């Protein structure tokens, strides 16, 4: 995906008043759970020169992003005292402190002579009366939402010390009705806040289990286009799709005539796929080299080895297996060696996914008729931590910064289980339903978009 937003410059930093030097800069400690949200004031960005009111739109998207994280609360604009009309003047900080705004975000949108938008912002610490960060972006008018997400990411990073996750997209499975009135599941994509939804596959066949490449330009998914589960690679920019495996055919890696391939995930360098393939009535983990188009078997066990996921350094792979009876989690080297069991609790452990931070593995646990979404240390130490329990849980997907997890949640409905995509933070708080019309499942969260 081509980069289309150009960062212009860091704006100047403002000197600290002497009286403020004794105070600590505003910082959000996200290592603690259930934080009291930090109050932030976000007036509409100032519109200059025919911007079609985008200043208000951009401020609205930024506010929604920050509030959705559970770390921030926005102050009602009806409480504002100062009406900021000049982006380059220092705010009257006492007017913002009296309404309990710990931070103030002001911005300006200018229509340039070439028609593009110049969007600048300044984030102020109202206690220290200090500018914390200031940036400018130039973009085509139709990309104003992406600029808003980039500003929200910059604010999040400045106040938490960790990267944001707002300028991202989510691919998911949307359930609908096929051409003959039958239920069908197809791939859809949207911005992480639910905006700009569209479909990637049509209603003539089922599509499941999408996963992003590290560059966010490709996805893998499982297609039933030919009547059996087959792994495909889909180039999001060109729309070109390719089946990776088949029982015959030039350019395809051969597998058994009735074999199926499932749930492929990219290696961190984007050059390999870890994929579970059915051979001789059992599933094993394989490594597929995308450059050489070659397939190498990593596990060889009578039990089913499925759902592989790489560690961020590409050195290890976590997967689920029934080799100990019920399904449990295992970790092995990326060459298939040194297989070690890492879950020992009661029930079935499935759907492991390595955190982008490398420290945790998310999983789904089924025990006594209850589903749980949990995390455990990637080295197997410590106790598992349950983030959500419910009627049905599946397919966890990490945010790029490893602080939020999307997952499929099923609840009893009038005509059976109804599926939606929800998110929860790493502390088990801020449970939110994704704004998707109709039933949805199988989320895949993109990396930050370049």
Detailed description of the structure:
The protein is mainly beta. The chain has 3 helices and 33 strands. It has helices at 54-68, 93-97, 144-160; strands at residues 6-10, 38-41, 46-48, 72-74, 103-111, 117-125, 130-139, 169-177, 183-191, 198-199, 207-212, 218-223, 230-235, 241-243, 245-246, 253-254, 261-266, 272-279, 282-289, 294-297, 305-310, 316-321, 328-333, 340-341, 348-354, 360-367, 370-377, 385-390, 392-398, 404-413, 416-425, 432-433, 440-445. A hairpin with a 5-residue loop joins strand 11 and strand 12.
Question: What's a concise summary of this model?
Answer:
The chain has 450 residues and is mainly β. Helices cover 8% and strands 44% of the residues.
How would you summarize the topology of this molecule?
Blueprint (H helix, E strand, L loop, with lengths): L5 E5 L27 E4 L4 E3 L5 H15 L3 E3 L18 H5 L5 E9 L5 E9 L4 E10 L4 H17 L8 E9 L5 E9 L6 E2 L7 E6 L5 E6 L6 E6 L5 E3 L1 E2 L6 E2 L6 E6 L5 E8 L2 E8 L4 E4 L7 E6 L5 E6 L6 E6 L6 E2 L6 E7 L5 E8 L2 E8 L7 E6 L1 E7 L5 E10 L2 E10 L6 E2 L6 E6 L5
Parallel strand pairs: 2-4, 2-5, 3-5, 15-16
Antiparallel strand pairs: 1-7, 5-6, 6-7, 8-9, 8-33, 9-10, 11-12, 12-13, 13-14, 17-18, 18-19, 19-20, 21-22, 22-23, 23-24, 25-26, 26-27, 27-28, 29-30, 30-31, 31-32
């Amino acid at each position: 995906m081509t980069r289309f937003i150009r960062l212009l410059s860091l704006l100047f930093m403002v000197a600290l008043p002497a009286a403020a030097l004794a105070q600590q800069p505003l910082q959000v400690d996200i290592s603690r759970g259930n934080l009291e949200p930090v109050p932030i004031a976000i007036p509409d960005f100032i519109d200059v020169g025919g911007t079609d009111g985008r200043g208000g739109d951009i401020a609205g998207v930024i506010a929604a992003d920050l509030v959705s994280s559970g770390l921030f609360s926005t102050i009602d604009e009806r409480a504002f005292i100062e009406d900021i009309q000049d982006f380059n003047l220092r705010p009257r900080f006492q007017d913002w402190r009296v309404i309990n705004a710990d931070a103030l975000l002001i911005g300006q949108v200018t229509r340039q002579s070439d028609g593009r938008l110049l969007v600048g912002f300044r984030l102020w610490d109202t206690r220290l009366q200090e500018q914390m960060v200031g940036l400018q972006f130039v973009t085509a008018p139709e990309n104003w939402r992406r600029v808003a997400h980039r500003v929200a990411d910059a604010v999040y990073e400045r106040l938490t010390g960790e990267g944001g996750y707002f300028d991202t997209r989510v691919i998911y499975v949307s359930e609908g009705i096929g051409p003959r009135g039958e239920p069908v599941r197809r791939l859809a994509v949207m911005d992480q806040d639910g905006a700009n939804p569209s479909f990637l596959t049509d209603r003539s066949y089922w599509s499941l289990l999408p996963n992003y490449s590290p560059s966010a330009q490709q996805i893998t998914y499982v297609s039933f286009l030919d009547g059996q589960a087959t792994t495909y690679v889909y180039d999001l920019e060109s729309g070109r799709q390719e089946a990776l495996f088949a029982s015959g055919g030039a350019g395809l890696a051969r597998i058994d005539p009735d074999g199926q391939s499932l749930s492929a995930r990219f290696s961190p360098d984007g050059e390999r796929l870890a994929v579970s393939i059915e051979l001789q009535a059992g599933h094993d983990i394989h490594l597929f080299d995308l450059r050489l188009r070659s397939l190498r078997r990593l596990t060889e066990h009578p039990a089913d080895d499925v759902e592989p996921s790489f560690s961020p350094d590409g050195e290890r792979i976590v997967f689920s297996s029934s080799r100990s009876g019920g399904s449990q989690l295992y970790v092995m080297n990326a060459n298939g060696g040194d297989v070690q069991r890492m879950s020992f609790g009661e029930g079935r452990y499935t759907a492991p996914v390595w955190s982008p931070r490398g420290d945790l593995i998310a999983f789904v646990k089924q025990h006594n008729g209850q589903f749980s979404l949990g995390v455990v240390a990637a080295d197997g130490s410590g106790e598992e931590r349950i983030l959500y329990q419910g009627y049905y849980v599946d397919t966890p997907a990490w945010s790029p910064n490893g602080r939020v997890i999307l997952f499929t949640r099923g609840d009893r409905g009038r005509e059976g289980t109804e599926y939606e995509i929800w998110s929860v933070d790493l502390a088990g708080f801020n449970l939110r339903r994704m704004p998707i019309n109709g039933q949805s499942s199988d989320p895949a969260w993109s990396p930050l978009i370049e």
